[in-house]
Design a protein that fits this description.
Helix content: 25-40%
Number of helices: 10
Distance between the termini: 54 Å
Strand content: 15-25%
Number of strands: 13
Shape: globular
Largest sheet: 6 strands, antiparallel
Oligomer: single chain
Structural class: alpha+beta
Radius of gyration: 19 Å
Order of helices and strands: EEEEHHEEEHHEEEEHHHHHHEE
Length: 290
């Protein structure tokens, strides 16, 4: 592509991603001389004011967050009808690609990744922000194993709008919560459900529900129970299976109440005497329910 400068500051270098609503470029901030990622709303959607508001809300929501496991947002702007967000550039691969290449993960690795995602959600939820689209495509892994949660593109303050069938069903249907599938109000426990689905896939190599039609998958999230994880992979510890299935409870009130509670349950697990420790190093008490 021809190099282009946005706001006389961001030099677009190459396209690195193409999503449903935006194209992502690797770019260089000429002012600070650092590599960044620039997400530009697709031109056909830039004419839709609802999409523009949604796109800008991504930046406003994500800019409130500062956490080592969340992709940082640096800037937001518009130039000649192009709406863009400038973000931290993460050198690595998506968890989706990592799972495709490595298959099911060990319990230790799956728990480590989930604990870090819980930490990111913990910070977001404390600010009233629900991600609503936790899935392996939105989890980035660096070469040293660091985890970054990306794309708060459909984040909303937890007390605002709901998702309905009248618009787009947001979030990948394989990780969508029952309340999202119904089009009812969602809260922080929606992200916990989606993380449970993600853990299910990390541990078994399979999504919990699948079908040819997205609507059929959504209905399965509402009405069906997943195949027990240990029926697919008997090496999964029973306590870990119970944690995943609790996160995936149909009734939000039966899930972990907070990301902190789920993180503590995960960190209480031990394998061969090795405690799964929080990278921050806090001492956590085991949940007697597990």
């Amino acid at each position: 592509m021809t190099k282009r400068l946005l706001h006389n500051r961001y030099e677009l270098l190459e396209e690195i991603g193409d999503g449903g609503t935006a194209i992502v470029y690797k770019a260089r901030c000429t002012l600070l001389d650092r590599i960044v990622a620039v997400k530009i709303l697709k031109e056909e959607l830039a004419r839709d004011q609802a999409f523009v508001r949604k796109f800008r809300s991504e930046a406003q929501a994500a800019a409130q967050l500062s956490h080592p496991n969340i992709v940082n947002v640096y800037d937001v702007g518009e130039e000649n009808g192009l709406h863009f967000i400038v973000m931290e550039y993460v050198e690595g691969v998506s968890l989706k690609k990592y799972l495709e290449e490595h298959g099911p993960l060990t319990p230790q690795e799956a728990v480590r990744i989930a604990v870090l995602i819980c930490g990111a959600l913990e910070q977001a939820h404390q600010k009233g922000i629900v991600h609503r689209d936790i899935k392996p495509h939105n989890i980035l892994m660096t070469s040293d194993g660091s985890i970054k949660v990306a794309d708060f593109g459909i984040a909303r303050a937890s007390n605002s709008s709901t998702i309905t069938y009248s618009g787009n069903i947001m979030g990948s249907v394989h990780y969508i919560s029952p309340e999202q599938a119904r089009g009812t109000a969602v809260g922080a426990t929606t992200d916990i459900y989606s993380l449970g689905c993600l853990m299910y896939e990390m541990l078994t190599g399979k999504v919990p529900f699948d079908a040819e039609s997205p609507i059929t998958v959504a209905l399965k999230h509402i009405h069906e129970e997943p195949v027990p994880l240990r029926a697919i992979n008997s090496a999964i510890p029973p306590k870990l299976e119970r944690i995943v299935l609790k996160a995936m409870a149909k009734d939000p009130n039966l899930r972990f109440r907070t990301a902190t509670e789920m993180k503590q349950a995960l960190m209480s697990l031990s394998y061969s005497g090795q405690l799964i420790e929080q990278e921050a190093g806090a001492n956590l008490v085991a949940d007697p329910a597990f």
